[in-house]
Amino acid sequence: MCHVSVGHVARTIESAGIPTVAVYVKAFEKVARKMRLPRVLLTPNPVGRPLGAPGDRERQAAVVRAALELLETASEGGMVREFDEPYRPRPGHAGKG
Amino acid sequence: MSEPVTETFEAFKNSFFYGSRCDLAFKFLKNLSSEEAGEFFRELIENLGRTVDDGDAGRLVRLAVEWQARAYAGEGAGRWTYEDAPFAPLEKPVRDSVVGLLTSSGHFVEDDDPEPFGVKHMTQQEACRRIKDFLKAPPTLSRIPADVPAEGLRVRHGGYDVRAARADPNVVFPVDRLRELEAEGAIGRRAGTFYSFVGACSQLRLLRDHAPRWAELLRDEGVDAVLLVPV
């Protein structure tokens, strides 16, 4: 449901004239495509970790950079790009429930 | 003597979805048929067996990601399917733009708890138990000053496994990463305020009453582009 919520927010903000880019995990690719969002970056990550594993600063930054790049390069709405680098869990950074 | 309790496999796999074994990382099991869920457990055990010998837990992570994707593959946007995609071009390069951040991760600043339904210090467990209430209620937008470091944030959300988002908010709310990108000149500057809400909320009220106000808020704050991250 969260993925639909952000879809609504993306469409509304973009329609108000502010460009948006959304980072979805691949598991929810269908939601992003069906909602025809302006710009979407898909990452091959587990749900709940769309930018990277806890503590993986390098990959989190790479995903944010790729998303910002899409803001500049997209020439029309409905752009979906894939971020291919695999997810890398980092020992010692697990969170608690 | 008490009667032996028998549980069907169907009931067992569904119990991970807000049931007796609720686990938000594996609630997807409910989306699988019993045959598929059986195959998931078989593969899990087979891969666990291999990991005992070589310690390469990466294959377990890949298995979890693969099955999450399989389980959610059928999940479209229901009635919220559109033909057209809105598009507003970026007017200047990102390195000259004011960049905002808005996520559905349920983060908030410590001591600025949105107190859902008037409950003070609601726990993650309670949010999980009350997921149906959240889904009927309007969303609450938490304001997060962009200068608050990740350690100053808290998270609560009854819809997803928050362990990673709690250990390091940057996995979904990249406040530290955006600060670094500003420092190196990759973005013009960060917006003064970032935002987060619990995406498990009434879709109608979000769409009709709240999202348009959030768009106005961002425009009034002079934001040139927004990074959105759903969970």
Round the mean pLDDT of chain B to the nearest integer and report it: 96
* Number of extended strands of chain A: 3
Order of helices and strands of chain B: HHHEEHHEEHHEEHE
The figure for the number of domains of chain A is 1
How much beta of chain A, percentage-wise? 15-25%
Structural class of chain A: alpha/beta
Query: How many alpha or pi helices of chain A?
Result: 3
Taking Cα atoms only, what radius of gyration of chain B do you get, to the nearest Å?
21 Å
Question: How would you portray this structure in words?
Answer:
The complex is a heterodimer of chains A (97) and B (231). Chain A has one domain. Chain A has helices at 2-15, 29-34, 57-73; strands at 20-25, 39-43, 79-82. In chain A, helix 3 (57-73) links the parallel strand 2 and strand 3. Chain A is of the alpha/beta class and 97 residues long. Chain B folds into two domains: 9-72, no CATH class; 94-229, no CATH class. The radius of gyration of chain B is 21 Å and the shape is globular. Chain B has helices spanning 9-14, 34-54, 58-72, 124-129, 131-136, 163-167, 175-183, 203-220, and strands at residues 98-103, 107-109, 142-145, 153-155, 189-190, 193-196, 225-229. In chain B, the strands form two sheets. In chain B, strands 1, 3, 5, 6 and 7 form a five-stranded mixed beta sheet that branches. A two-stranded antiparallel sheet of chain B has the order 2-4. Chain B is 37% helix and 12% strand. Chain B contains eight helices and seven strands, in the order H-H-H-E-E-H-H-E-E-H-H-E-E-H-E. By secondary structure, chain B is an alpha/beta fold. The chains are: A alpha/beta (97), B alpha/beta (231). At the A-B interface, helix 1, strand 1, helix 2 and helix 3 of A face helix 3, strand 1, helix 6, helix 7 and helix 8 of B. Strand 1 (20-25) of chain A pairs parallel with strand 7 of chain B.
